[in-house]
Amino acid sequence: MIHAHITTWIVALILFFVALSLNKSGKTKGAKIVQMILRLFYLLIIATGVGLLSQVSIIDWKYILKAVAGLWVIGTFEMILTRVKNDRRTSVFWIQFVVAFALALYLGFAVLPMSFLHP
Ligand code: HEM
């Protein structure tokens, strides 16, 4: 499950940047398709995240924060893509993306116990 979780968010990250560059180069149709696939990956990230949560016996605030950070990353993906499409400023959401992503990585890799290195 941890491998599936990592795979889904790495694929989502790649799709996000692909959708972004397609949007910026005016290929809106392609961007739309990639964004649809990206949205499917949101569901997979959440499903694997919830799957991991279900393996935890005592869910403390660190797990809640991890889940919130993960959902926050997904939220910033959507905000950035929508705002790029509408030619609006994205800097505030890029900052949020960096903060949320760093928090998810830190909590996932450094704080919480499950790891793909020693499952
Ligand atoms: C793009 C969003 C997300 C990113 C970048 C992310 C990142 C990570 C990382 C790096 C790990 C640790 C993997 C390891 O130690 O091998 C992890 C584990 C985990 N994630 Fe996520 N995640 C995201 C979304 C979510 C969501 C939405 C949820 C909950 C619904 C969630 C719940 C969990 C849980 C429960 C673990 C296991 C923690 C442990 O006990 O070590 N994640 N995630």
From TrEMBL:
Topology within the bilayer: Multi-pass membrane protein
Keywords: Cell membrane, Membrane, Transmembrane, Transmembrane helix
Coiled coil spans: none
Principal location listed in the UniProt entry: membrane
Transmembrane segments: 6-24, 36-57, 63-81, 93-116
InterPro entries: UPF0344
GO cellular component: plasma membrane
The keyword DNA damage is assigned to this record: no
Record localization: Cell membrane
Claim: Membrane is one of the keywords in the record: yes
UniProt similarity note: Belongs to the UPF0344 family.
HAMAP family for the chain: UPF0344
Protein known as: UPF0344 protein E2K98_26455
UniProt lineage: Bacteria, Bacillati, Bacillota, Bacilli, Bacillales
